[in-house]
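Dear Dr. V.,

Thank you for agreeing to look over these. As mentioned in my earlier message, I'm a first-year student in the group and I'm still getting used to reading structure tokens, so any feedback on how I've presented them would be very welcome. I ran two proteins. I've put each sequence directly above its structure. The first is here:
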Amino acid sequence: MTTSEHLDLVSPQSRANAYATYAGLRAEAPISKVRMPTGQDVWMITRYQECVDFLGDYHRFKTSPTVLPEGVEMPALPEAVLRLLGGSMGAIDPPEHTRQRRLVQSAFTPQYVERLRPAVQAIADSLVDGLLAADERTFDLVEQFAIPLPLTVMSDMLGIPREDRDRFRLWSELLLSLDPTSAQSAPQGMNPAEVMAEIEKFVGYLDALIQGKRANPGDDLISGMTAAEADGEKMTDDELLKMVALLVVGGLGTTQHLIGNMLLALFRSPDQLALLRENPDLAASAVEEMLRYHGSIEISFPRFAAEDTEIAGTPIRRGEMVIAVLAAADRDPERFPLPDKLDITRAQNRHLAFGRGAHMCLGAPLARVEGQVALNTLLARMPELRPAVDLDDVAWRPGLTLRGVVDLPVTY
């Protein structure tokens, strides 16, 4: 065990060198106590096997704290945020989590996601059409492709009317800006009161949308979830509200950053970029490798020790917070040979980019489809696609929850 109260985790320089920081922690011990930017101490697990064991252990580690160490208090959340995220499926444990997940999965099946592939392809082609038609041959891959692709897919999937898409994007960005590991400012320079006012509008909008789908269901996912039934139970309006918010948080920023991270990784590994261009059938394998190499979910949801316990011989007191550093686990040399090398043909690639256990990312199949379509579409239709800036100057998103580039200027 190592204690690193003053370890820099969130400065721009530390964000760029995060893998080296995690490698240092991992080499010292499987678990380290680190002081977060909020001032709260947290145990960070950085080795693969210990992360796997922790993520699957709902007996010793709970998503909601049953008790906190003396002097530690959880920050109070505004009512609107609680309605959207408090007690959502990401914040509860089995068996209640199992019930909610079973209900949503009856509508959001892998078969449903695969049927979306032609629509995802059409959206990607439309975005590239617009880029190719522009006079300017340089563009920001994040702003002009990586953001609008999952935003449009998610909006269509949820049945968000097209005239509401700009507001929907703002609301999604505001939810992502609530990352407690970041001092990131809200979009468009909004102050905290303005942020909360917009989030309250989002709650009202979703309430009305859900009621509309119950009254007049369509072929969208919200309509499917209103009708979903398991063991005679259906989702309540409150559960649906939280589920939509969770899908927005988990399905937009993650895929946006995955796309940006994938292109950055390929630009830095020209041999792998050439291999993928020559063999587009490797797209599925390439996405899996880049999820391991540059996954967009950096850390797990925090969990709390339900009892005095230990991890790899390190004592953990009841109530202490623990997180699995997925980005560190996926570069553990004990699990992945040559972990810092990008290899799109890598076999035995069971990464933790989507987590593990009951809270494994519900949207993983959709993220995979979007990633595969994005790669093949960009590389096929823009065969000369290349970075337009020094890649060392690319800025990383603040905070630890999501890992991704803020922008990525490219040319073709």
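The second protein is here, in the same arrangement:
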Amino acid sequence: MSHQADTEVSGSRLTLRIVQIVCFTFLAYLVIGMQLAVLPPFVHDDLGMGAVIAGLVISTQYVATLLSRGFAGRTSDTAGPKRTAWIGLLACAVSGSLMIVAALLRAWPMASLGTMLLARLALGMGESCVATGCIMWGIGRVGSEHTAKVISWNGIATYGALAVGAPLGVVLVAIGGFVMIGLSAVSLMLLALLLAWRRPPVRVEAGERLPMHRVFGRVAPYGMGLALGSVGFGVIATFITLYYASQGWSGAAPTLSAFGVCFVGVRLLLGWTIAHFGGYRVALGSLLVETVGLIVLATAGHVGVAMIGASLCGIGFSLVFPALGVVAVERVSAGNRGAALAAYSVFIDVALGVTGPLGGWIASGGRYGPMFVVAAVLSLAAALLTGTLYIGYGNKARG
């Protein structure tokens, strides 16, 4: 995917090349993060909608991301990842514009809700294109042997942005109302589009393009593990604010930040373990830690204990995506890895898309603890699946 000179970089220079690309992921997810702590209360309290509708608004983004993954993957493989990322940033800017309109229509709840759903659809498409485009763009800049590092740094940008974005969104709403969320999104995306335009593209790999269903079939076992392990993040991101409110606690935004900080810390300090121990082993250990965190969160009787549980979830979930992703993309040729990454990412979209309305249904009586119990069971199931894959495919690969 890249020229020879681009693959022979190491150390700080390599990291710099990656950061120059994943900074666009950071800016896009900053827009997403700003909405996490303020969108559910806006829908639930200001518009007078129930918990199910609040969950549906959040999940709409994930559904749109799911539906646009194939487009993002194939565009990255054929037109280049830079163009894919640029399209995604533009979609995020459109989303911000629609969010401004939704805020201005606050006095008409159904009109505001409809506009907000359109904004979330645009944001979902933007997310898929930015995420896939930036990862493949970064790999093209430093070489496929650094795939795990690129995915890890992209995740650092993702959840670092969520950690910053959640409290930033609260501050922005306090300063200028919900309309500030849309205005900030448009401003950030215009800056990102300008910077992205100046970054060099990478060469598109030649070769046979596998049909998407064949690519999907090759990565499906790993994607299923990712999906099961992603439910915990989904319920935290979507319902932690309402969970804290039901318990009479404050500090939901700092808890989201704690999750993000722990996620980033593990990526920075332990990202090397994927190359050293292998994706299967790292994913298995990570999923078990996440399971423990979800159990702690479900049984917490104090805000401090709940924050510890969320932090453990951040630690556990941190390396699941890159650990399983590395072994997933290795199952296709270089010219199909954009499609493979997109197909693999579909599974987290499905998980997060289902989590919102299903979690809202489980918590419709005002009891949010059972959601975290269900998520813990699914995380444990993901660990068992990963162990099975390791015994099967992992041993064959070593042989």
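From my reading of the second output: Confidence is low (pLDDT under 50) at residues 1-8. The chain has one domain: 4-202+209-398. Does that match how you would interpret it?

Kind regards,
E.
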